[in-house]
Specification:
Elements: H1 6-10, H2 16-41, E1 52-55, E2 58-62, E3 77-81, E4 84-87, H3 93-103, H4 115-118, E5 137-141, E6 160-164, H5 191-200, H6 208-215, E7 279-285, E8 300-301, E9 319-323, E10 342-346, E11 354-355, E12 359-360
Parallel strand pairs: 3-8, 7-11
Antiparallel strand pairs: 1-4, 2-3, 4-12, 5-6, 7-9, 9-10
Bound molecules: calcium ion (2 copies).
Residues 239-241, 253, 255-256, 327 line the site of one calcium ion.
């Protein structure tokens, strides 16, 4: 393991006793760090929590310097996380239903829209939309029929539509349902909905670092969660989009829309659909430059993300990170079906391609 904090004490040359004090402090930090890593590597004894898999703690390479990656994924840097349990699958409709039945929880998409809250997330001076538009709903993928309208791929409103009445029970809007879709991932859950479920389940949302550690499946240098070839031997490894997004969908992986969980091979940690199917909320605030905020520190230990979000593309919207890409990720548009790919989503936004999975810390020894 490389030494943490080396740059900070190399770059400050303090005289005499102060230097000695710094060296002692650094040595202590190093010793604590080394002990922490060793103690957290092993899988705890006993049965695994239901539906969860163990991801060992340790140091891994987070992000990438791949020239084809997005700028927000750079630079590749060393990160250390503790071991943790993680759901093997995205949280399903059946699991989310149990939570709602037990608690009476209403998701963000089912609650009245408060313009006083919403107007803080749009540019100042934005006029209030008509009351008939400010109704409970969510964003539904609605592909264009025929040719892509003006704006092309630069205008996401060409395929995202605000649908009044869309929520987790009605993923395509009124008239749609999740009947027969118990094993599909729940969608149209805003960040606080995902957090509420996690808390009820005795779990939490993963940090971005934990999520990436898990999605790499123990092979940190691979471009994808399963190797460097997207479809090894022609075999599809995840539910993504084939065809020219968003107008043409081809059915090569068997699922033009969301798939039930566990339809593709699990990764090296036994996790399904980390890549593709639906995006997954993480607990970190989103900034595209998050990795550059730490400077060139040699090792970042258990990062939890920036103190607040900032996306220059949409500066008024608080955003959290989502990871893994979805059934909408295509080679001609986002290529976000890679473990290092990052996305920021407005915290109050439900979408028809966004879900989550949870993690659980090791129980402290008694
Ligand atoms: Ca697909
Ligand atoms: Ca996923």
């Amino acid at each position: 393991m490389s030494k943490p904090f080396r740059r900070s004490w190399n770059s400050r040359t303090a005289p005499g006793g102060e230097t000695a004090a710094r060296l002692v402090a650094a040595a202590l930090a190093w010793a604590l760090c080394a002990g922490f890593a060793t103690a957290q590597e092993a899988r705890p004894a006993g049965p695994e929590p239901e539906g969860m898999a163990w991801v060992p703690g340790g140091v891994f390479t987070m992000g990438t310097d791949d020239r084809d990656a997005h700028d927000s994924e750079r630079p590749a840097h060393k990160v250390q996380v503790r071991g943790f349990w993680i759901d093997r699958t995205e949280v399903t409709n059946a699991q989310f239903r149990k939570f709602v039945e037990a608690t009476g929880y209403k998701t963000t998409a089912e609650r009245p829209v408060d313009w006083e809250v919403l107007k803080k997330q749009v540019p100042p001076g934005t006029p209030k939309p008509a009351d008939e538009v400010l109704q409970p709903g969510s964003l539904v993928f609605t592909p264009p029929v025929g040719k892509l309208p003006p704006g092309g791929l630069d205008d996401v409103s060409n395929w995202w539509r605000w649908v009044i009445g869309a929520d987790w029970r009605h993923p395509e809007g009124p008239g749609s349902s999740i009947d027969g879709k118990d094993d599909a991932p729940v969608v149209h859950v805003a960040f606080e909905d995902a957090e509420a479920y996690a808390k009820w389940a005795g779990k939490r949302l993963p940090t971005e670092a934990e999520w990436e550690r898990a999605a790499r499946g123990g092979n940190e240098n691979w471009r994808y969660g399963w190797g460097d070839s997207f479809a090894p031997g022609g075999k599809r490894m995840a539910n993504t989009w084939q065809g020219r997004f968003p107008e043409v969908v081809e059915d090569e992986d068997g699922f033009p829309r969301i798939a039930p969980v566990k339809q593709f091979q699990p990764n090296g940690y036994g996790l399904y659909d980390t890549i593709g199917n639906v995006w997954e909320w993480c607990s970190d605030w989103y900034r595209p430059d998050a990795y550059r905020l730490d400077g060139d520190r040699e090792l970042t230990v258990d990062p939890k993300g920036p103190a607040k979000s900032y996306d220059p593309m949409e500066p008024y919207q608080p955003k959290r990170v989502s990871r893994g890409g979805s059934f909408l990720c295509s080679s001609n548009y986002c290529t976000n079906y890679r473990p290092s790919a990052r996305n920021g989503v407005a915290t109050d936004s439900g979408m028809s391609h966004l879900g989550f999975r949870c993690v659980k810390d090791v129980e402290p020894a008694r």
